[in-house]
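note to self — DONT lose this again. spent like an hour looking for the file last time. sequence + predicted structure for the chain T wanted, 135 res
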Amino acid sequence: MAEARYYAHPQNRFWHLVGKLIEVDLPALAYEQRLAALNAHRIGLWDVIASAKREGSLDTAIRDPQANPLREFTDSLPDLRAVAFNGAAAARIGRQLLDAADFALVPMPSSSPAYAAMPLAQKQQAWMGLRKFLN
């Protein structure tokens, strides 16, 4: 059943990784408080894909993806410094949508537990590289 929340699966490390980045214990907060903390740090959260066919939760199972209007969204943000993509699928699709952007396009290792090729400590180190884009 869909949770209608970003990164709702308890094993996904997104909230841990971003929490370390902004020095806030995001996993300890209610979902609405997590979103408020991101907003307070000028971090947006949005799907590259608006809809797709997929059995299960793996990105490799995505079929017929329909992209969100990411270019229109980013064009409305004149102070945008970077867009970070959580995982290879998001980066691949997002880079196509934001070709020739005036801001950094930053592929990040997936926060999903299914991406086990990289240890959590190495993922965290990569995600900490986003600090240079925060005020």
